[in-house]
Structures are given as structure tokens and as C-alpha cells.
């Protein structure tokens, strides 16, 4: 990023034609920077959060999940914003938004059940 237009704007003579061009170039540069930040950082994060919320709304019993704390378990019961998971011999109640990843949708159709 060049700050030359900003410096030129500060030291340009008053009432001259250069003021408008320098200020216009500075405004265009700032708009480009804001646009780049939006499309490279903000927009992808918002889309990722929207997809994650959609996956969490489709959560159902028998799904294997990974929590934010690193616990892997199978969903046993879902009630509003609480999810009961079974991990090993323990049952844990967690908030739905603490599910980081849905690993699988329970046992597949073709696999033998135990």
C-alpha cells in the first residue's frame, strides 16, 4: 500500500486541480483494500459458519461427532440446544454449538451391526 497520495494531499496547494485527482486515487485505493479484505477474509468465514450451522441443524441420533474439546462420541439424544453424547462408558451433555465436526452418520446400511 502506498501512502504517497495521502502525503501529496496534505502538501498540495489549496484550490488546485491536483487535489481532486489525488483524493480520488486515495479513495479508490481504500475501497480496493476494503474489498480485498472482505472477499479474502470476511466472506469465506461467514459462509463457513453458515454451512456449519446447517450441518448442526441436521444432527441426529447415531451420528458420530467431534466436540470442540476433542471428545469423540455418538449422539444419543438431542433436545433444543443440548446434545447428549456417549463416549466410551460415559454420557456427556454438551451444547449443540460445541460440536466441531460431524464425523459420520452412524452405521452404514451395508455394515453388520453388533
What does this protein structure show overall?
With 114 residues, this protein is α+β, with helices and mostly antiparallel strands. It has two domains: 4-55; 60-104, SH3 type barrels (Roll), CATH 2.30.30. 42% of the residues lie in helices and 26% in strands. It contains two helices and five strands; from the N terminus they run ααβββββ. The chain has helices spanning 4-11, 18-57, and strands at 64-67, 72-79, 82-87, 90-95, 99-104. The chain has a five-stranded antiparallel sheet. Strand 3 and strand 4 (90-95) form a beta hairpin. Helix 1 (4-11) runs antiparallel to helix 2 (18-57). The N and C termini lie far apart (62 Å).
Keywords, separated by commas or semicolons:
single chain; 114 residues; alpha+beta; SH3 type barrels; 2 domains; five-stranded antiparallel beta sheet; 2 helices; 5 strands; 42% helix; rod-shaped
Amino acid at each position: 500500500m502506498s501512502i504517497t497520495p495521502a502525503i501529496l494531499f496534505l502538501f498540495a496547494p489549496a484550490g488546485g486541480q491536483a487535489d481532486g485527482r489525488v483524493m480520488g486515487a486515495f479513495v479508490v485505493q481504500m475501497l480496493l483494500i476494503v474489498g480485498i479484505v472482505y472477499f479474502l477474509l470476511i466472506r469465506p468465514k461467514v459462509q463457513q459458519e453458515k454451512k456449519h450451522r446447517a450441518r448442526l441443524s441436521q444432527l441426529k441420533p447415531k451420528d458420530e461427532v467431534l466436540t470442540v474439546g476433542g471428545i469423540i462420541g455418538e449422539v444419543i439424544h438431542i433436545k433444543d440446544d443440548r446434545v447428549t453424547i456417549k463416549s466410551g462408558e460415559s454420557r456427556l451433555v454438551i451444547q449443540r454449538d460445541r460440536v466441531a465436526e460431524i464425523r459420520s452418520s452412524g452405521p452404514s446400511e451395508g455394515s453388520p451391526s453388533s
